[in-house]
Amino acid sequence: MIKAKIKNKEYNIKSSWNDLTYQDYINIVNCKENIDAVSILSGIEVETLLKLDEQSLKNLSACISFIQELEQEEVLGCLNIREQTFGQKILLQEKLQIDNKEMIPAYALAIYEYNYEQLEESFLEVLKMSFRDVYNRGMNYVNQLSEILKSESIHLKSTPNSEQRRAGIDMFDEFGVMNTIDSLAGGDILKYEQILKIDYNTVFIKQKMLKFANQFQENYTKIMSNKR
Predict the structure, then answer these.
(1) Among 56, 40, 36, 43, which residue's Cα sits nearest to residue 3?
(2) CA-CA distances (angstroms) from residue 109 to 47, 119, 135?
C-alpha cells in the first residue's frame, strides 16, 4: 500500500495483489470504464483523477501496474476434496457453470473452508478476505475438481448401446447428478441427504462398482441368451 496526498487529502493506493480484497477484484472486473477501475485501486475519486497532470498519472500507473499480471501460486494446507463430502463436490461443480467466472474461486473457498450449507453467507465472508488468499486457495479446489471430472470421464462414463438409446435412455439426461444420487440411494428419496454427506472417495468407488455390476449383468444376459 502506498500513501499519496492530493490537495491535503491522503489516499491509500493499492500496489500489490495483497492489498485487494476479493470484493475489490470483482468490482474491478465489473467496471465499464478503465478510470473506474483506477479509482478502486487508488481510492481516488474519478473527478479528482480527471484533473491530475500527466506526470501524476504516470506515477499512479506505475503503482497499480501489478494488476496487469496474475499468476496462481502454490499453497499449503488445502483440503483434499476427495476426502470431503459428495455434496460439496456437486455444489462446486454447479458453480463452474455460472456466468461470472471470477466468482468461482470465492465460491470454491466458501464451499470447502466455510459453512457450505449456508453458502451465500459464507461467500459474502470470503469476499472480505485478501484477494491472493482467496484466489490461490480457491483455484486449488477448482483444479482438484477438474482432475476429478477427468477421472470420472475415464472410469465412470458409459456409452449407451443402440437398444438403450431406442428405449429412451437420453430422457434421464435432464436430471443430471440426481440420477447418481437416486441410484446410490436405491431410489429412496429419504436417503438423498445421507448420500450427499458421504465422502467423495466412497461415492466414487460405489459408482465404479455399480458400473462394473451393470456391465457384468449385460454380459451375463448375452451369454445366457446365446446358450438358449
Answers:
(1) 43
(2) 36, 10, 9
With beta carbons less than 8 A apart as the criterion, state whether 66 and 17 touch.
yes
Q: Which of 155, 170, 197 is the last residue of a domain?
A: 155
> Which position has the grid cell 487508488?
42
Domain interval for residue 198: 162-227
The model's pLDDT over 41-98, given as tens digits with 9 standing for 90+, comes to 999 899 889 988 888 888 888 988 888 887 778 888 899 999 999 999 999 999 999 9
* One domain, residues 151 and 167: no
Crossing angle (nearest 10°) for helices 22-29 and 119-127 = 90
Find the helix or strand (DSSP H, E) in which 78 lies.
none
pTM of the model: 0.83
Between the CA atoms of 99, 105, 106 and 109, what dihedral angle is there, to the nearest 10 degrees?
Answer: 140
